[in-house]
UniProtKB/TrEMBL annotation, chain A:
Cofactor note: Binds 1 [2Fe-2S] cluster.
Species: Acididesulfobacillus acetoxydans
UniProt-listed PANTHER family: NADH-QUINONE OXIDOREDUCTASE, E SUBUNIT, POTENTIAL NAD-REDUCING HYDROGENASE SUBUNIT
Binding of [2Fe-2S] cluster, residues: C97, C102, C138, C142
GO molecular function, one term: metal ion binding
Protein name (database record): NADH-quinone oxidoreductase subunit E-like
The keyword Magnesium is assigned to this record: no
Keyword Metal-binding: yes
Similarity comment: family membership: Belongs to the complex I 24 kDa subunit family.
InterPro entries in UniProt: NADP_DH_HndA-like, NuoE-like, NuoE_dom, NuoE_N, Thioredoxin-like_sf
TrEMBL record, chain B:
Domain 4Fe-4S ferredoxin-type: 652-680, 681-708
InterPro entries per the UniProt record, alphabetical: 4Fe4S_Fe-S-bd, 4Fe4S_Fe_S_CS, Nuo51_FMN-bd, Nuo51_FMN-bd_sf, Nuop51_4Fe4S-bd, Nuop51_4Fe4S-bd_sf, Thioredoxin-like_sf
High-level lineage: Bacteria, Bacillati, Bacillota, Clostridia, Eubacteriales
Entry keyword annotation includes Membrane: no
Bias kind Basic and acidic residues: ranges: 43-60, 80-102
Family matches, as Gene3D superfamilies: 3.10.20.600, 3.30.70.20, 6.10.250.1450, Glutaredoxin (3.40.30.10), NADH-ubiquinone oxidoreductase 51kDa subunit (3.40.50.11540), NADH-ubiquinone oxidoreductase 51kDa subunit, iron-sulphur binding domain (1.20.1440.230)
SMART domains: NADH_4Fe-4S
Protein name per its UniProtKB record: NADP-reducing hydrogenase subunit HndC
Amino acid sequence: MSQSEPGQMTQQAEIPDGGVNRQFALLDEFVASLPYKKENLIAILHRAQEIFGSLPEEVQMHIAYLLDIPAAKVYGVVSFYSFFTMKARGRHVVNVCTGTACFVRGAAKIQLEVEKQLGIKTGETTEDGLFTLESLRCVGACGLAPVLVIDGKVYGKVEVGQVKEILGEYREK
Amino acid sequence: MRLETTDALNRLRDESQRLIEVRAQARIEPWEQQMGSIPEDSGAEKAESIPECSGVEKTESIPGGVGVEDTESVPQNAGEKNKEEVEDQDKDKDKDKDREEPAPEGAGGAAPEERAKREMTVLVCGGTGCQASDSEEIIARMRKELAARQMQDRVRVVKTGCFGFCEKGPIMEIHPDDVFYIEVSPDDVPAIVEEHLIQGRYLERLLYVNPVNGERLERNLPFYHRQLRIALRHCGLIAPEDVKEYIALGGYQALAKALFQMKPSEVIAEIRASGLRGRGGGGFSTGLKWELMSRAEGGQRYIICNADEGDPGAFMDRSILEGDPNSVLEGMALAGYAVGATHGFIYIRAEYPLAVHRLQTAIRQATGYGLLGERILGSDFCFGIEIKYGAGAFVCGEETALIHSIEGGRGEPSVKPPYPAQEGLWGKPTCVNNVETLANVPIIIERGADWYAEIGTEKSKGTKVFALAGKVNNVGLVEVPMGTTLREIIFDIGGGVKKGKRFKAAQTGGPSGGCIPAQCLDTPIDYESLLGIGSMMGSGGLIVLDEDDCMVNVAKFYLEFTVDESCGRCTACRVGTKRLHEILSRITEGKGELEDLDRLTELGGIIKDASLCGLGQSAPNPVLSTLKYFRDEYVAHIVERHCPAGVCEALARYTITEKCIGCTVCAKNCPVSCIAGSPKKQHVIDQERCIRCGTCQAKCPVDAIVRK
Ligand SMILES: Cc1cc2nc3c(=O)[nH]c(=O)nc-3n(C[C@H](O)[C@H](O)[C@H](O)COP(=O)(O)O)c2cc1C
Ligand code: SF4
Ligand code: SF4
Ligand code: SF4
Ligand code: FES
Ligand code: FES
């Protein structure tokens, strides 16, 4: 079955030879492999975000063209779902879990500390393009609350004092 | 290899026994033994009389310090069994004997040459929680260590789903010794292999210590005493990535039975008689839903498994999919057979990579064996399952929104009727069921409706899985018979409130539910009783709040969530929730007025009445229930400008306690010089002038300054 495996929450897929054309070719290939297209808009957007890292206007237009649907419809779907983003993300995506279990165990403080350390607000990307800070709700590790997720790796029972060190590991990478 | 007949399935089941043999001696039917030990008193009689707590007028009488001291009540009923089940009891006794004897001298301490031949199985939790604390690495290390000693052929390492005891993860269980290790780290692996697997000596330091008496327990942890694991029957027991283990334990037998011995209408009748109700929140009778479906006009129809799990502090459905995906697939196939559908979809969030992966594996394997797909088990019944991905929108858990999302559009709810059972996916009759609901289906068909209907209360049958989290000692996944009280879940299973703090409230039902105060702890849980006390069952999120939680702030947290997640179709929901949130923000900032409380109630009522879907209709619940039970906290915020829990920044008070040694550091650092006191004497903060910057608390060398 040609199911699209949705990417790990944040990572851009490894593209062997980088170029933009190659990226569009990958997307075309995926769309061509689907038995039906329009109904699979969401799966296509997942794949596109995996390939391009985000869903900028030209990618949305391209998808609209491929599926022969209005670009407004594509935009309507992209803007509806919080998982889709139109802005390019940084090299590393930092997610603070703001689910209920983490909330009652002090996620807000962790979030403030990450914002302070990175000098950005949630939803923004650092100027050097290294970090994007986002929030998500419950990663299923509530026993480890509060939880911080960086590039899919989960850090549990995070204390405010550890934030700097954890982020530091990624500054070097 | 396709299985063309029931006999072929049975042969595969028998051949696969060797996979689970070692475990079989210890744990294969633990819930069956437990069946005898369901607390007698949890039944229907209590369910009718909802305790005083439900009345709005009675909220003044909050008994102090409920339950914290209660932890000694470890259930003694492990041995107390139902009279009718004498036979089972005898069987249990034998099993118990087998299990208890071996510890010091028996299997573990067997002669070295015998030990060196023993087949063993090491189960390691591969649930999301334990994976986050390196269980993958534990497995890799274990395999490496075993290979280095040429033990890989007789010791199987099995990656399971969640054991439920996530608090103490990563969990490892070793069979046939039936020893339960907690908080295992990859560095413990060599010792486990050397000491336990080779020498037969259990590692004391990795055993759970019963907080009540300090005893180290190898098995039978109090956490499991009051649980009855039916939907979770295979979680933490089998390898979810190997369908043969599921088959070895009787998997797909229910499907075979239905296909060859039952008519679709009989399957529906069985499910109806079992009393199974939807676990996705609404509690609609599953059998009735199927019956309506089967009567719908038109040829093509669909089954959808709702795995969206939007409650932002809950992980039941995900854990079932991660731990036992095949039971959900089998449940879907049974639903398909019952209502005449040949195609099913599972709608799951793309953000759950592990659950997605296990589902894909399970679908591939089951299809390979001909348990899904064309002509299942050689019958005329065809049923295929496809996964559809959500993209992070809470409202997509609502069935009509979910259907629009599968169709590739914006996930906005639509007006019901028509119900999905009449006009659903692509306009065809569609049956939407929750993951946990479906996981219950195969076992009901296998064991019969009567068996299932014995469990639970009069109107709510069976069990319910809860994701127990927050300020509770044993965070984890628990499954209890309906009718169990919150007190039992939180104190007996959950081990009480963390750090000995005072219990304040339990939140159930997530953003659609409410907060249940201490005086309602003895309410037996079922769909009706929870509604009666202003909350709801929801999908099973259960968050424990303690004295340090501010209820106004909790309500604000949920409203923030609904404001974010409202799809915007209805004005009442889109604008109304925003207004509620603004009022709550005002109160937490110390700018509230008493009239705000009436505004909250009134606006809440309007939103409930004027919203199209369940999201809006239930969005005010967190506010209304906290207002009902914790009005005094709202009033304190408004009148005294004080947050009693010390959470709301603007309303917190810093005070110096008698721990102060009079070092003067705080006074020197206070930016507005509002701390008075002479050296070596207790200092005092002038509350009028204090700007609540928190500097003093941070600077005090002896932690004498508290924020309350
Ligand atoms: C806002 C909203 C969110 C919902 N989220 C879920 C969910 O995450 N999972 C779920 O199974 N049902 C959810 N439901 C309930 C579904 O609409 C539907 O009733 C349910 O999937 C039916 O399955 P059941 O009868 O087996 O419970 C939600 C309902 C509403 C109004
Ligand atoms: S109640 Fe809210 S979420 Fe539901 S349809 Fe209306 S606006 Fe959308
Ligand atoms: S909180 Fe700040 S302003 Fe208030 S007493 Fe302490 S240091 Fe002074
Ligand atoms: S810093 Fe602490 S110990 Fe020192 S005077 Fe202030 S409250 Fe007392
Ligand atoms: S709420 Fe953060 S992991 Fe569950
Ligand atoms: S994830 Fe391991 S016990 Fe729950």
